[in-house]
Amino acid sequence: MKKIILTCLILFSSLMHAQLLQPLEGFTDEIKGINDVSKLWEMAAENKKAQDHKKRELVLKRLIELRPFNPDLKFELVEAYAEQDKKTEAYNQLVEIQKAGLSYPLKNNQALENIKNTKVFDYLEDGMTANANPFGIGEKAFEVSQNYSGMLFENLAYDEKAERFLLGSVRSGDIYQYSEKTGFKSFIAPGDPATGPWGVIDLVADNQGDLLWVATATLPHYTGTTQANFGKAMISKYMLSTGQLLKNYEMTGSNQPMLFNNLHLTAGRDLYFTNAFTNDLFRIKNGTENVEPLLILKGLPSIKALTSNSQGTLLYLSDFELGMFVINLETMQLAPLVRTDKGFFAGINDLFYDNGDLVAIQSGVNPARLMRYVLKDDLLLVNMFPIEASQPEFKSLGNGVLVGDHLYYAANSQWAQVDALGRLLPETTWEPLVVMKSPTKYMMEEHMERMQRMEEIKKKRGIK
User: For domain 139-459, is the CATH number 2.60.40.2470?
Assistant: First the structure.
């Protein structure tokens, strides 16, 4: 009788296990077919609320397949592991995050209770705390008064001959200049809202050709936006020395809204830029007046910056969600610059080519930082290290400009202070816009020597 009961219990247990397993297997198959990132985020949030941590884990793993360089996703996966008391898996993820120089608060995170009170956790917590400390020798170059910062200066260019910085206003369309001699003052007055130019989205100086290229558009943030001009955009060419408008380039024949951005001038003085709404890449070649559509950058949801190598044969771009890519300008082929899912290359909002390497402003990670990516032959990433991180002024890193061996950039972009219509958020005030200055090769020799020592150790131990 006992054997019969035991057999029945085993059978019942097996049936129950099968019933529980089947829905999970079906769920796994379901999420494998989902490519909609926003939908997966919603599913992860729903599973977290329902405390279904296994399903949350599966959803987060699918999200990481689609967005492999996003550290927030991997930290959420740490939480999902911890809720299931999967210590090894949680620790491995935390080690990866901590070794990358990133920092998340661990001590008071209730989701991590199951993995606390161990030497490993204490070690990781100490490492995360250390990563949050300021790093680098950057300093304030200048600041724009809060009386003007609400004009939303989301771009920066440099006039080498006049030794002045140029800042364009998204809000008004004015272009201002700053130098140590003159201070902050107006340079180019805004255009007519009916015909443009409009609110300044981006600008770049052609110092060799005495030109200033400016992208403008009628965003809701622009005071001149009307029902008649909403969604329009243009590229304008000015004389850099005088501010005289030379030519406007406006796309005609399309009823679709446009937003030109990511202006980049190659060493050969060809201008590249993108349309944020369609991901079209355009070029105006040096010495011509034609706007060439080159290719559509498919599958890149959030292109933030363009730069090119010294020969003008490669165009690098950063996508805020997917990391860095490179375009062969002879074949127009697009490929990932980083051919691995290791590392955290998301969150880059500006990118610069500097003596064979790439320098990035990475605002979308914690702590926000400036990074140097060491390249071999312009294509192979061989090393990376921070050059500035977690400074007290780093409230919302904006874009910048490379001047010699220093990067100048906005430390507290006021864009984070406004809503989608450009209105100041409740309980916030305009702050002076702080422009920082950081050396682009800070501690580079030390980092390269450390890498060489590591390679020698690996070689001795037969590690590939």
Answer: no
* 15 burial via Cβ count (<10 Å: 0-12, 13-18, 19+): exposed
Residue with tokens 């001149």: 224
Residue 255 burial (C-beta neighbours within 10 Å; 0-12, 13-18, 19+):
exposed
Is a pLDDT exceeding 90 seen at residue 363? yes
Q: Which DSSP symbol is given to 312? A: S
If we measure between CA atoms, which residue out of 185, 196, 251 comes closest to residue 219? 196
Mean pLDDT within 423-429: 95
142 beta partners: 435
201 CA to centre of own chain: 17
Q: CA-to-CA distance for 383 and 371, rounded, in angstroms?
A: 11
Residues 94 and 77: beta-carbon distance below 8 Å: no
The residue among 58, 105, 99 whose CA lies nearest residue 81 is 58
DSSP state, residue 442: T
**Six token digits for residue 4:** 């019969």
At 15 the pLDDT is 37
The secondary structure of residue 411, as a DSSP letter, is S
Q: Which residue has the tokens 């090894």?
A: 88
Q: What is the largest CA-CA distance in the chain?
A: 101
Write out pLDDT tens, residues 51-62. Answer: 999 999 999 999
Tokens matching residue 415 = 């864009």
pLDDT band, residue 5 (cuts 50/70/90): very low
Give the tens place of pLDDT for each residue, 152-194: 999 999 999 999 999 999 999 999 999 999 999 999 999 999 9
Fold classified for 34-131: 1.25.40
For the question of whether the overall pTM of this predicted structure is more than 0.85, the answer is yes
Residue ranges per domain, the chain? Answer: 1-29, 34-131, 139-459
pLDDT tens digits, one per residue of 401-410: 999 999 999 9
Which two structure tokens, joined as six digits, stand for 25? 């297997």
Tokens encoding 268: 């050969």
CA dihedral (44, 56, 37, 335) positive or negative: positive
Phi and psi at 10, nearest 5°, equal: -65, -45
* Mean pLDDT estimate for the chain: 93
For residues 307 and 402, is the Cβ–Cβ distance under 8 A? no
Q: Nearest 5°: phi and psi at 292?
A: -100, 120
Q: Which two tokens stand for residue 53?
A: 């941590």
